[in-house]
Amino acid sequence: MNKLLITVLLSAAIPALSAGITAKSWILADNANNIIHGKNIAEQRSIGSITKLITVIVILDAQQNPQQSLGSLDRKNLIQFALVKSDNNAARVLCDNYPGGTVACVSAMNRRAQSLGMNHTNFVEPTGLSIMNVSTAEDLVRLVSAAKDYPEIVQASRTADLKIQIKKSYLIIKNTNPSIAHDPNNFWVSKTGFINAAGGCIVMMKDTPIGRRTVVLLGSRNTHTRIPEAQTIMALE
Questions:
Q1: Which of 52, 85, 199, 237 has CB 3.0 to 4.6 Å from 219, enough for a Cys bridge?
Q2: Are 93 and 75 in contact (CB under 8 A)?
């Protein structure tokens, strides 16, 4: 089969594969952050709990004691709780205990975003519950690329079931991305998000048979559609 025909067939297959995607905005990028495919990549949208990725990044950048108790959990466990369970209270507590408190934490989140070239991104709080936490698919590729360099984020992204000891008992928490359980070691970054204004959202960086790929998906119909749609996009080439 000649190269021209192969190219035509692949080009025809892409719309067919992505026809069922309800997401308003999405990107597939390679290991160098080059965009392979995408839709509405510069559209600014609410991002829900994807916010927690940059919350955790600035907490880790502050290099505070991970074993410091912040209530019933220490900082290390709160970070995992915020990422794996997407726990809003964990993100709030982490930000409240950032040097200078919540205001300083949110300011640091915005500065960090700007340092990554996320010029169409803004945060007003650490959880993602506010519709005013906004970004674009294009900006979030940059965030995912930065997040992969934090071992704590990689650990959470490979954790299907989080086991946390509280006093004499253990709390078992399932990851909000259940697909991790089937292939944990190939994930580098995974974070889901949802509020009504954002729809179903997910960012993933994963090693695949054809190379490392990043998917950013925003505005999927609901929390049930975001992961199958992200997997469909990940398979595009």
A1: 199
A2: no
